[in-house]
């Protein structure tokens, strides 16, 4: 014990038992002492106790919330790592915003709720906590906001897959407060090497003898070329930043800024100024988040070809804001009307990293094209205190727009129009709209496929993807990836992975599977159907969000090895069907297949071993709140209604037992 608790006598001799305390006087008044809550008064004591000057306590308090993770020394070197680059540098944004608030006479407060990394938890039990984390973090953020009763405004700083959606949910709930979101930006691609999406397939490619051990080690070392920011592709992190700006919650041209650079730090200062002005003008979150701004976000999502995970997050944001929750029909309508205009990783056709989308003009540039097509509501308010129309008028004539495009040409030799295109240019490039929602006897409630990501070789001249084959059924992602690595999956197969929805795994993200299929030479000839969800960087003929999920007695959980399944996706008209058609020896119609599946027993699927109680509770609460198609939210009124009904039913059962 001595070596664990060793302390010098000198250290003990210097222990103090009292201190002088801060000098000066609190700026109290007779009215404050007679009428203010004791918490407000004690808060002033806490403020000066932390070192704030008592002479500077009259400013308006603004809360800064962040996903910051890790710890650095005074020179910026790591002494404790964060979970990912996305929250590693946001402390700089916090400092820049705080200094700006202080300079304006305000009092900044800072609080943190760090976030996990979906890349780090792929294929592990950590993925069971990924999606449920979003709801939990949003709850904590809201509690932190309410626990500082004297705050006049809130700034949220976040970057990645779950932290930024959680922040948007929390701030969307603050209807009567001014709020601004500062997106955490993106990391840069390596000068030589692979992006952070492709690099996650080194295990599968090495197992298939497509790369060497030395190549895997070297490429893996270089993938995150800079220490901060979200991944270099339009995955969930980048798409969430785009959506925050499209909603009007972030400043124009703030999404996808390069982390750690001056232009990125400048954004934090400007955002702090914006929230100060919002407070003066009495512009609050409910002025910005409306049905019209939710619609605009859906349109921008389609134009970018964003992550399908935002189909889970945008409805949740709408719910938190008290807006109308978009339905599947709404998503279908938006995606049919909206052309995809952005050519970036992972969709292509040219695989530009997100930094190029930023330099090409980012969200406002895309919105200019959408405005010309009449697809946006330009009267919505934004955090600039001006309407979207006014913001776009400024952007169209701004020197910033010209300079950004010039920098892209000078740095990478790329014309901005090669990254963000007009509708006509995009059509010439063969770019199609983003998302299709297949239905059928396997997915009676619907499913999702990013139709833009299907390999062009697999689509015929009419824009149709068609695949009919016997299926290979797996009841966990782990079994599926093991089959791929062991060579048991071949070109022409259809993989079914069930039991991986909210009730089974917390609706895990199956990027291990989709990335392996993308980057293995035969992968484009394999179709994946699952009740789990996909990473935003996933590509290929991958159908997810199948509903009902297997563990909710969904048909996907009743398929067997050797069943014949037919998949047909119309990538032009955004229509799709996923049907069980019997077996090779006994073919049936889709209608007959429906009856067969109804009579079958569920496969040997069960909640994953080690599924945390926290996630089981999340799954139950979101299920009675409408499930994934309503954003996996907590509908408190509905939850209470179900609980009360359950209590009554249990009470009745107990009384019946007593009578017997």
From TrEMBL:
SUPFAM superfamilies per record: IlvD/EDD N-terminal domain-like (SSF143975), LeuD/IlvD-like (SSF52016)
Keywords of this protein's UniProt record, alphabetized? 2Fe-2S, Amino-acid biosynthesis, Branched-chain amino acid biosynthesis, Iron, Iron-sulfur, Lyase, Metal-binding
Dihydroxy-acid/6-phosphogluconate dehydratase N-terminal domain boundaries:
84-391
Disordered as annotated region, ranges: 1-26
**PROSITE patterns reported for this sequence:** ILVD_EDD_1
Record has Metal-binding as a keyword? yes
Q: Which InterPro entries match?
A: Dehydratase_YjhG/YagF, Dihydro-acid_dehy_C, DiOHA_6PGluconate_deHydtase_CS, ILV_EDD_C, ILV_EDD_N, IlvD/EDD_N
Instruction: Using the record's annotation, list all stretches that form the Dihydroxy-acid/6-phosphogluconate dehydratase C-terminal domain.
Output: 432-579
Q: Where is the sequence biased in composition, kind Polar residues? A: 1-10
Q: What are the Basic and acidic residues biased-composition ranges?
A: 11-23
Its family remark reads: Belongs to the IlvD/Edd family.
> What is the protein's name according to its record?
YjhG/YagF family dehydratase
Q: Native species of this protein?
A: Lederbergia wuyishanensis
């Amino acid at each position: 014990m001595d070596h664990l608790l060793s302390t010098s006598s000198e250290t003990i001799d210097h222990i103090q038992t009292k201190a002088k305390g801060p000098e000066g006087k609190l700026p109290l008044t007779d009215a404050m002492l007679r009428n203010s809550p004791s918490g407000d008064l004690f808060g002033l004591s806490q403020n000066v106790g932390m070192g704030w000057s008592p002479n500077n306590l009259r400013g308006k308090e603004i809360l800064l919330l962040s996903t910051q993770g890790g710890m650095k020394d005074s020179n910026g070197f790591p002494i404790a790592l964060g979970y990912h680059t996305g929250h590693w540098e946001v402390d700089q944004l916090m400092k820049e915003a705080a200094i700006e608030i202080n300079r304006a006479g305000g009092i900044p407060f800072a609080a943190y709720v760090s976030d996990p990394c979906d890349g780090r938890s792929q294929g592990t039990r950590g993925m069971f906590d990924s999606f449920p984390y979003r709801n939990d973090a949003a709850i904590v953020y809201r509690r932190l906001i309410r626990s500082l009763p004297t705050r006049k405004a809130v700034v949220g700083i976040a970057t990645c897959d779950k932290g930024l959606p959680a922040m948007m949910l929390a701030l969307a709930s603050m209807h009567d407060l001014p709020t601004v979101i500062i997106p955490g930006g993106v990391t840069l691609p390596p000068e030589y090497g692979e992006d952070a999406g492709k690099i996650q397939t080194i295990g599968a490619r090495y197992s298939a003898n497509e790369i060497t051990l030395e190549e895997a080690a070297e490429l893996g070392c270089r993938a995150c070329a800079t220490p901060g920011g979200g991944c270099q592709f339009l995955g969930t992190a980048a798409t969430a930043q785009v959506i925050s700006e499209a909603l009007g919650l972030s400043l124009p041209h703030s999404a996808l800024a390069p982390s750690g650079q001056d232009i990125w730090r400048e954004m934090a200062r400007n955002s702090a100024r914006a929230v100060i002005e919002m407070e003066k003008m009495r512009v609050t979150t409910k002025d910005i988040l409306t049905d019209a701004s939710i619609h605009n976000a859906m349109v921008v999502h389609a134009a970018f070809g964003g992550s399908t995970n935002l189909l889970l997050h945008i409805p949740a944001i709408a719910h938190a804001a008290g807006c109308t929750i978009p339905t599947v029909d709404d998503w279908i309508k938006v995606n049919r009307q909206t052309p995809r205009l952005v050519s970036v990783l992972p969709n292509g056709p040219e695989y530009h990293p997100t930094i190029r989308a930023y330099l090409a003009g980012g969200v406002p540039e895309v919105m200019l094209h959408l405005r010309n097509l009449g697809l946006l509501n330009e009267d919505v308010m934004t955090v600039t205190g001006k309407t979207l129309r006014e913001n776009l008028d400024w952007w169209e004539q701004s020197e910033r727009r010209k300079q950004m495009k010039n920098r892209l040409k000078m740095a990478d030799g790329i014309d901005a129009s090669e990254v963000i295109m007009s509708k006509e240019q995009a059509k010439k490039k063969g770019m199609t709209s983003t998302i299709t929602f297949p239905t059928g006897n396997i997915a009676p409630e619907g499913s999702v496929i990013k139709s833009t990501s299907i390999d062009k070789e697999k689509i015929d001249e009419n824009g149709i993807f068609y695949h009919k084959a016997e299926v290979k059924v797996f009841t966990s992602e782990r079994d599926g990836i093991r089959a791929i690595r062991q060579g048991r999956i071949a070109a022409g197969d259809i993989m079914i992975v069930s039991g991986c929805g909210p009730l089974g795994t917390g609706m895990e993200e199956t990027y291990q599977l989709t990335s392996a299929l993308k980057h293995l030479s035969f992968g484009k000839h394999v179709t994946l159907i699952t009740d789990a969800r996909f990473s935003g960087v996933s590509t290929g003929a991958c159908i997810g969000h199948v509903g009902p999920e297997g563990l909710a007695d969904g048909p996907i959980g009743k398929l067997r090895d050797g069943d014949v399944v037919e998949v047909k996706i119309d990538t032009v008209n955004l229509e799709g069907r996923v049907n069980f058609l019997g077996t090779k020896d006994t073919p049936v119609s889709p209608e007959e297949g429906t009856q067969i599946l109804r009579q079958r027993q569920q496969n040997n699927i069960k909640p994953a071993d080690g599924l945390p109680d926290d996630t089981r509770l999340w799954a139950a609460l979101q299920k009675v709140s409408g499930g994934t198609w309503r954003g996996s939210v907590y509908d408190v009124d509905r939850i209470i209604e179900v609980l009360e009904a359950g209590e009554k039913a249990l009470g009745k059962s107990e009384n019946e037992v007593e009578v017997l």
